[in-house]
Write a structure and sequence with these properties.
Order of helices and strands: HHEEHHEHEHEEEEHEHEHEE
CATH architecture of the largest domain: 3-Layer(aba) Sandwich
Strand order of the largest sheet: 5-4-3-9-10-12-11
Low-confidence stretches: none
Number of helices: 9
Number of strands: 12
Shape: globular
Mean pLDDT: 94
Helix content: 25-40%
Radius of gyration: 18 Å
Distance between the termini: 47 Å
CATH superfamily of the largest domain: Vaccinia Virus protein VP39
Structural class: alpha/beta
Strand content: 15-25%
Length: about 280
């Protein structure tokens, strides 16, 4: 669906009953019953057809699209269920002057969560090659006034420099992939190696990194760890769990580089760098 980045934030705010139902869904406790209740409330709101919603979620402003991106829809109605452990760990690791790299930034859910914690002297590098969600990412960063601390790289990350096909998933834009054919339209996107991208944007360290690029995580991380100096290695890595698509054994590689698996969630692996490594 088409984006709307012209109307000011608030133009698509829910009102009346729908606003109340959204508030209830966002405030439900975690657990099976809370999840089921949130899904019922979400269905009740979406039955009225709001394809775009402006809302404040966890203290930040978002324009979220409910029809073509699973992560935006889930975060809007169920932020308490959206990677709660992972996002909390990112916030814990970051500090004023910290650096966060978000590979596969999508509409900015991790990027915006991290931005308040790096301060004006820190930096968030948000990497997103899909033009549709890239536009949404830029809008969400701007309405929160984070342009001075979030740098957006409109490219992909791979194991080589050049142009690659990105297969789009029109029913779930977050499912678009460089390595898996989801049956959708293909577009050509510019890609860079992670270390080259970090150098281009002046990163001397990475405190935390999240990577969710639909099975291409090994293509981004293996060359980085082969070439990057030790001081560039992130303290925390949030890694999408896609082992069936990887050609490199990423868990073995991370262990070899001094990381330990802190937690495996439904969607991700959380790796931390040993202080003794």
């Amino acid at each position: 669906m088409a984006n709307d980045v012209e109307k000011p934030f608030g133009a698509y705010a829910l009102e009346g009953r729908d606003k109340q139902l959204l508030g209830w869904a966002q405030s439900l406790p975690t657990g099976w019953l809370g999840r089921r209740a949130a899904l019922i409330l979400r269905k009740a709101v979406l039955s009225n057809g709001p394809a775009i919603v402006d809302a404040t979620v966890e203290g930040l402003k978002y324009r979220l699209y409910t029809q073509d991106n699973v992560s935006e829809r889930k975060f809007l109605f169920m932020p308490q269920f959206y990677d709660p452990y992972e996002r909390a760990r990112v916030k814990q690791v970051l500090f004023d002057g910290g650096v966060f790299v978000d590979i596969g930034a999508n509409a900015g859910l991790y990027t915006l969560a991290a931005a308040p914690h790096v301060g004006d002297s820190g930096k968030v590098l948000a990497v997103e090659p899909n033009p549709v969600v890239l536009q949404r990412l830029k809008f969400n960063v701007a309405i929160n006034g984070f342009e001075n601390r979030v740098v957006i790289a409109p490219v992909g990350v791979s194991d080589a420099e050049g142009s690659f096909d990105l297969t789009l998933d029109d029913s779930n834009l977050g499912g678009s992939s460089l390595v898996e054919d989801r049956g959708g339209k293909k577009i050509t996107v510019e890609c860079h190696k992670l270390l080259a991208l970090a150098e281009r944007y002046g990163l001397e360290k990475i405190d935390a990194l999240k990577i969710d690029i639909e099975g291409a995580e090994d293509k981004a991380l293996a060359p980085f760890f082969a070439d990057a100096p030790e001081e560039m290695h992130p303290k925390l890595i949030i890694l999408e769990n896609s082992p069936a698509a990887w050609k490199v054994d990423l868990p073995a590689l991370l262990k070899d580089k001094g990381y330990a698996l802190e937690k495996a969630t439904h969607m991700n692996q959380v790796w931390v760098k040993s202080k003794n490594a």
